[in-house]
Amino acid sequence: MSIEKYSLEKVLSIQPWTDTLFSFTMTRPAHFKFTAGQFARIGLKVGDELVVRAYSVVSSPFDETLEFFSIVVPDGAFTSNLQHLRIGDELYLEKIPYGFLTLARYQLPLPKDLWLLATGTGLAPFLSMLQDFETWSKYQHIHLVYSVRTASELAYVERIQEMAETFGEGHSGFKFVPIITREPNAVLHQRLPQLIENGELEQFVGLQFNPESTHVMLCGNPEMVEETKEALKARGLSMNRRGEGNIAVENYW
Ligand code: NAP
Known about the structure:
By secondary structure, this protein is α/β, with parallel strands linked by helices. The protein has helices at 79-82, 124-129, 133-138, 157-166, 192-197, 200-205, 222-234; strands spanning 6-16, 21-27, 39-46, 49-56, 65-71, 90-94, 113-119, 141-148, 174-180, 214-220, 247-251. It has two domains: 3-94, Translation factors (Elongation Factor Tu (Ef-tu), domain 3, Beta Barrel), CATH 2.40.30.10; 103-249, 3-Layer(aba) Sandwich (Rossmann fold). It has seven helices and eleven strands. It has a six-stranded antiparallel beta sheet. A five-stranded parallel beta sheet has the order 9-8-7-10-11, with helices on both faces. The longest helix has 13 residues, at 222-234.
């Protein structure tokens, strides 16, 4: 792996959410341009080896710094080292961004209803999109659906409200929909595919999936992505290919 592909950046802040979830920001070099929804490849020196992982960017394409949302994978070569990050530490950043989970990929149907379905740290690309004024101006309805195991894992809730106020400027079609799967008393506590199959998700937001007007993006647990895709297809939605179709996906690990 050639080191010239990377720039060396500095950690600016670290925010722990739980024992296994945290966010961090780092310097952004002027050459690093990305579209909301894309991911960066970040490298960490572990001994003599450069270990690299993909991370969706949380911050907006207009921010001066880069923010990321991470889970600590037990015994993971990358995150178990990353969790010991300190302000001022250095990280490698690959100079180009990656990924096609961007709103620009949708041509047909035309933008109207946007469903952003995430589990865990798969929330990250959607936070970037919600900090882009264009997202809010394009869509009549925006539903951010975020599934976690326990309420303590619900990160970014206040920031999401702030984003809706700052970037949405009172957009009346925005709904934030938390799902807490291991707390039976939570209003929504079943897994995403079940909530789609039994109609509870649509009932909760008051809008139906519609092949003529729905754009739906999935990001997170690969099994969730696969099973939710099937549930949506059963409702008549199609995979987005070459700009046409309703469903766009990103597996997260
Ligand atoms: P998770 O197990 O992905 O759970 C997060 C949410 O997704 C929960 O609400 C969970 O529901 C739901 N979910 C899980 N499988 C699903 C499925 N097939 N369909 C629909 N929903 C589903 O939890 P996490 O904390 O984000 O990640 C757990 C583990 O995944 C980590 O410990 C790590 O090993 C791995 N991970 C790896 C990376 C990586 O970059 N390598 C990144 C993230 C996570 P339930 O409560 O019903 O399970």
